[in-house]
C-alpha cells in the first residue's frame, strides 16, 4: 500500500510539531515497554560506531533495560572482533543471513550502523520482519530509499528512530531553548557554517565516505546532522534547495598518491601520512579484517576516485518562509561551527569551538542581541562523554523510562528523511545547476504548506 503523501505532510507536520513542541509526546517509547521486560536488540554493522556507542557502551550503560541478541556484518573477522570487544555472548551472523538472524533471535529492534548506503535496505527488511528500527544518520542516501522506507513503515506499523545525537549536545539544547522562548520573534533567516579540520575532515576521505555511492557525499553523511538541527531549531520543513559543491582539496588535487598509507612510497613527503598501526584498536578492527572485504581504513586522501565534495554551499527555503545559508569545508586548520539566527526582534550568534590552534578550549559562545536594545553573552560547556555527552543523553531518552522529551529531541523517520532530502536535493542542484523543489525529489506535495505559513 502506497503512503498517502498529502496525509504524511498534513497530519504528520501539524500534529507532530505541535505536540512535540509542547512536550506532550515523545517518540522514545522503547522506554515504555512492559515493566521488567528487557528490549531485545540486534546490531547490524559492527564497525567503529556499532561496537562502541551501540555495542560495548550500550551494554555497560543499560544492563537492566536491554539485551544484545545478535550481531551482523559482511565481514566475519570484524564480527569475531566485535563479539570480544563488546563482551557479549550474542551469536554472530553474516549479512547474507540477516533474515535468518531476525527469525532465530527475534529482536524487538534492530540497530543499524552499517555504511550509509545500506541503512535503508536493513531498515526496510527489519520492519518487514516485525522489528522496530534504530538507525544511524543519514537515514537514507537516495530519494527512492526514502519513499520505500516510508511505504514500509506505513504498511508494517513499525517505528523508526533516527539517532540524531547532535540534537542532544548542550549547545544544541541551548539554541533550541532560546528559539522556543520566542525572544527573537519570527525567524527570518539562519546561517550555519561547518568547519572540519585536516584531521577529522581528512578522515572522511581515507575511507568509504569519500565515494559518493557509499555516503551520498558529506551532504548526506555529515550535513544530515546540521540540516536536521536547523529543521528542528526552526520547527520547519524544507521546500527548495540550491547548492554548489566541488572536490577542490582531496582526490585528484595532488601531484602524488598511493593506495593506502601503509604501502605508500610518499610517506616522507605527504602531510596526510597516518600510521594506523599506532592504534591497537584500529589495527584489530580494520587492518586485521581487511583481507575479507578489501576495506582499507587508511586509504589515500588523494585517491583519484574520490567524488565526495570537500567544499559546498547550500541555500534552503523553508515552509515557514525562513531561509538557510549553509556551508561545509573539510580541509581547514581548525574545527568548529558558526551558527546564527536572524529574527524580527534580533539575532542569536553561536560560535562552537572544537579544536583550534590558538585556544584548545571547548564549548560554545552565545551572543543574543535585541534590536535597539541590549546584547548578552554567555558560554555553554559540553557535557562529559562521547560527542559532548550527546550519545548518552540520546540513549537515556530512548531506553530510560524517567527521561522526558520536552524539546522534542527524539527524531523519527520524518526527521531523518527531511534532513537527507536536503542533501539529496543539494546533490541534484549541483549536478543540474538548477534549484530543486523537495516535492519533486520525493514526489509528494510539500509545497502546499508554504502559503499557510506565510
Ligand atoms: N551519529 C554519530 O555521531 C555517528 C558517528 C560515527 C558514525 N556514525 C554512523 O554510523 C555508521 C557507521 O559508521 P562507522 O564509522 O562505524 O563506519 P565503519 O566503516 O567503521 O563501520 C561500518 C560497518 O558496516 C559494515 N558493513 C558494510 N556494508 C555492510 C552491509 N551491506 N551489510 C552489513 N554490514 C556492512 C562494515 O563491514 C563495517 O563493519 C555510519 O552510518 C555513520 O554515519 C554516526
At a glance:
The chain has 17 helices and 16 strands. It is of the alpha/beta class.
Total strand segments = 16
The tally of structural domains comes to 2
Q: What is the overall silhouette? A: globular
**CATH homology group of the largest domain:** Dihydrodipicolinate Reductase, domain 2
What compounds are bound to the protein? nicotinamide-adenine-dinucleotide
Helix content: 25-40%
Structural class: alpha/beta
* Cα separation of the termini: 34 Å
The major beta sheet can be summarized as: 9 strands, mixed
CATH uppermost class of the largest domain = Alpha Beta
What is the C-alpha radius of gyration, as a whole number of Å? 22 Å
Task: Please state roughly what percent of the residues sit in beta strands, choosing from under 5%, 5-15%, 15-25%, 25-35%, 35-45% or over 45%.
Answer: 15-25%
CATH topology assignment of the largest domain:
Dihydrodipicolinate Reductase, domain 2
**Overall mean pLDDT:** 91
| CATH architecture grouping of the largest domain | 2-Layer Sandwich
Written overview of the protein:
The strands form two sheets. Strands 14-13-12-11-7-10-9-8-16 form a nine-stranded mixed β-sheet. Helix 6 runs antiparallel to helix 15. Strand 9 and strand 10 form a beta hairpin. It folds into two domains: 162 residues, Rossmann fold (3-Layer(aba) Sandwich), CATH 3.40.50.720; 230 residues, 2-Layer Sandwich (Dihydrodipicolinate Reductase, domain 2), CATH 3.30.360.10. It is built from 17 helices and 16 strands. The protein has 454 residues and is an alpha/beta fold. The site of nicotinamide-adenine-dinucleotide has 23 residues, from helix 2.
Amino acid at each position: 500500500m502506497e503512503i498517502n503523501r498529502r496525509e504524511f505532510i498534513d497530519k504528520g507536520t501539524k500534529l507532530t510539531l505541535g505536540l512535540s513542541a509542547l512536550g506532550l509526546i515523545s517518540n522514545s517509547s522503547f522506554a515504555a515497554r512492559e515493566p521488567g521486560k528487557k528490549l531485545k536488540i540486534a546490531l547490524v554493522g559492527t564497525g567503529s560506531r556499532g561496537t562502541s556507542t551501540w555495542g560495548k557502551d550500550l551494554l555497560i550503560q543499560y544492563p537492566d533495560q536491554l539485551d544484545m541478541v545478535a550481531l551482523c556484518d559482511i565481514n566475519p573477522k570484524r564480527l569475531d572482533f566485535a563479539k570480544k570487544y563488546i563482551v557479549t555472548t550474542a551469536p554472530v551472523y553474516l549479512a547474507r543471513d540477516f533474515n535468518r538472524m531476525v527469525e532465530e533471535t527475534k529482536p524487538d529492534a534492530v540497530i543499524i550502523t552499517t555504511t550509509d548506503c545500506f541503512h535503508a535496505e536493513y531498515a526496510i527488511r527489519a520492519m518487514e520482519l516485525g522489528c522496530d528500527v534504530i538507525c544511524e544518520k543519514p537515514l537514507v542516501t537516495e530519494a527512492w530509499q526514502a519513499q520505500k522506507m516510508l511505504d514500509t513503515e506505513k504498511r508494517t506499523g513499525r517505528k523508526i528512530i533516527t539517532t540524531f545525537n547532535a540534537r542532544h549536545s548542550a549547545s544544541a539544547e541551548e539554541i533550541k531553548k532560546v528559539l522556543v522562548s520566542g525572544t527573537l520573534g519570527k525567524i527570518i533567516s539562519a546561517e550555519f557554517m561547518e568547519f572540519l579540520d585536516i584531521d577529522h575532515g581528512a578522515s572522511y576521505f581515507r575511507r568509504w565516505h569519500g565515494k559518493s555511492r557509499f555516503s551520498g557525499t558529506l551532504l548526506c553523511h555529515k550535513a544530515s546532522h546540521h540540516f536536521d538541527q536547523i529543521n528542528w531549531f526552526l520547527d520547519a520543513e524544507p521546500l527548495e534547495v540550491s547548492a554548489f559543491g566541488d572536490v577542490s582539496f582531496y582526490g585528484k588535487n595532488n601531484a602524488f598518491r598511493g593506495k593506502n598509507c601503509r604501502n605508500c612510497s610518499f610517506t616522507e613527503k605527504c602531510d596526510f601520512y597516518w600510521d594506523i598501526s599506532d592504534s591497537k584498536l584500529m589495527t584489530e578492527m580494520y587492518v586485521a579484517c581487511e583481507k575479507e572485504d578489501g576495506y582499507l581504513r587508511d586509504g589515500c586522501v588523494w585517491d583519484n576516485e574520490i567524488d565526495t565534495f570537500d567544499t559546498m554551499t547550500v541555500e534552503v527555503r523553508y515552509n515557514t518562509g525562513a531561509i538557510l545559508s549553509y556551508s561545509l569545508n573539510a580541509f581547514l586548520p581548525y574545527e568548529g561551527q558558526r551558527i546564527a539566527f536572524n529574527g524580527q526582534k534580533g539575532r542569536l550568534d553561536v560560535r562552537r569551538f572544537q579544536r583550534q590552534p590558538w585556544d584548545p578550549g571547548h564549548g560554545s559562545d552565545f551572543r543574543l542581541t535585541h534590536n535597539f536594545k541590549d546584547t548578552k553573552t554567555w558560554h555553554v560547556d559540553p557535557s562529559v562523554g562521547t560527542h559532548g555527552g550527546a550519545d548518552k543523553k540520546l540513549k537515556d531518552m530512548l531506553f530510560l523510562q524517567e527521561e522526558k522529551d520536552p524539546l522534542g529531541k527524539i527524531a523519527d523517520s520524518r526527521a531523518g528523511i527531511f534532513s537527507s532530502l536536503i542533501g539529496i536535493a543539494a546533490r541534484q542542484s549541483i549536478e543540474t545547476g538548477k534549484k530543486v523543489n523537495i516535492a519533486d525529489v520525493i514526489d509528494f506535495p510539500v509545497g502546499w504548506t508554504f502559503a499557510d505559513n506565510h
